[in-house]
Amino acid sequence: MTAFNSNSNEPRDRREYPRMTPGNNVRVEYRQNPLGLTTSVAVEFLNISQGGLCIVVPEALASKELEIAIFGANSSEPITCSARVCWSAPLDNGSFCVGLQFQNRLLLEEVLRLARSSVGSSK
């Protein structure tokens, strides 16, 4: 059953945390096993919230649990966390769009720091 806004017939966004667009110089690295021997870089970083993120990866993910490092444009240290793969969808170009849920939510300040609106550069 789909929930609708009371003032219209449009479906209501029932997400717990609002999604934000990351800044241009933000990148995501991920490891598919806890030992972390191989680190991969997301092809594209689509959105982030306190509860998770959406990225495009070059190959199907073999693991349901990932270690994530998010590198901000003006930050010396990455934000690191564990995440669970919630969904994965193949794209026409052979890559995969993946929705990840953080094991522990990020602070709002961390998300805002990574969001496009908070990036200090106007290049």
Number of domains: 1
Low-confidence stretches: 117-123
Order of helices and strands: EEEEEEEH
Structural class from helices and strands?
mainly beta
Q: What global shape is seen? A: globular
The count of helical stretches stands at: 1
* CATH homolog superfamily: predicted glycosyltransferase like domains
Radius of gyration: 15 Å
Under CATH, the topology is which? Thrombin, subunit H
Q: pLDDT average, as an integer? A: 83
CATH-scheme architecture: Beta Barrel
Sequence of strands across the biggest β-sheet = 2-1-5-6-7-4-3
Query: What is the CA-CA span between the terminal residues?
Result: 44 Å
CATH class: Mainly Beta
Helix content: under 10%
